[in-house]
Amino acid sequence: MTEFLYLTTVRLIIISFLIAIFPVHAEILKDYRLTNRVILTFSNSEENPDRQLLIQQIKQYPCEYMKRDLVHIDLIKGTDQYNRLSQKFLLPESTSFKLLLLGKDGEIKLSTNRVELNDVFSLIDTMPMRKREMQSEKC
Q1: Mean pLDDT for all residues in the chain
Q2: Which CATH number describes the domain made up of 33-136?
């Protein structure tokens, strides 16, 4: 009987733990809604040249990046987050690189295989919310 109680307790602890952490992974984008624009990149490897170029461009333009309240979520094929979000956004299995820009409303504003951060900046600058933000720049 004691062994049964022990196993039941262990199972309940594990289930409680899984319930507690699952929403964090499932709702990663929810944390940024209404506060940030999100650049999601889906890459087939860390060495993907498009991924590397985007990371380089973000480092090259930190003030421009920050002014637009951007967050980069870098997803590498084979990870749980990549699998979940690639299904959510219906990416084909053969995708080697994909960039999605999500607005502060959580909607897709751009979907492209090209990497040009200045194009992302230009698109954001046409958005009504960004035009209001430009009146009180951060840097």
Answers
A1: 83
A2: 3.40.30.10
115 torsion bin: left (phi>0), alpha (psi -120 to 50), beta (else): beta
Whether the predicted pLDDT of 128 surpasses 90: no
Sheet of 97-102, strand order = 70-76, 37-43, 97-102, 108-112
- Are the C-beta atoms of 71 and 31 separated by less than 8 Å? no
Host H or E run for residue 76: strand 70-76
Which residues share a beta bridge with 102? 38, 108
Spatial separation of the C-alpha atoms in residues 10 and 45, rounded to whole Å: 37
> How many CB atoms within 10 Å of residue 100?
19
Residues 35-75 have pLDDT tens digits of 999 999 999 999 999 999 999 999 999 999 999 999 999 99
Q: What does the domain layout of the chain look like in residue ranges?
A: 33-136
**CA-to-CA dists, residue 25 to 6, 52, 64, angstroms:** 29, 25, 29
